Amino acid sequence: MKVLETQRLRLRGMTLDDAPFVLQLVNEPSWLRFIGDRGVRTLEDAQRYVRDVPQASYARHGFGLLRVEALDGTAMGMCGLLKREVLEDVDIGFAFFPAYWGQGYAFEAAQAVLAHARQELGLPRVAAIVDPTNASSIKLLERLGFRFARPFRMSGEAQEISLYLTQD
User: What domains does the chain contain, in order, with CATH numbers?
Assistant: First the structure.
């Protein structure tokens, strides 16, 4: 998995050594509220998550969720591309620890991921799905050039979410 670097950030593929970071992030109240409970409760669960989600995606698609860190290696969050069976397009996902909100890190990371998607993966369009009550993520998506496409329901989910798309 290629490492992406920005002025302030490094985005790299996740390894099993990232399990403590993953365990903490996926149990943040904001993750649980807006993304959902992934049932990750132990370091072993977090290692399984790393293997089954980002690493499986790297192997299958050549992309996936990346660890976002400061240039000194401090874990800040994750950002990357996902290919879901229920979506026609590849979608971008991001989540950061609250200590790093409101400082432009998510925007910077997402810009790097979108540039990689367009320039190196040749994706003409990228999707994003977001809880319609997550105003901060919606604002970020719009700032990145995404536009609301339609309400969307993931298979087996009762609650509707919003589908956003970049322009072709």
Answer: 4-123 (3.40.630.30)
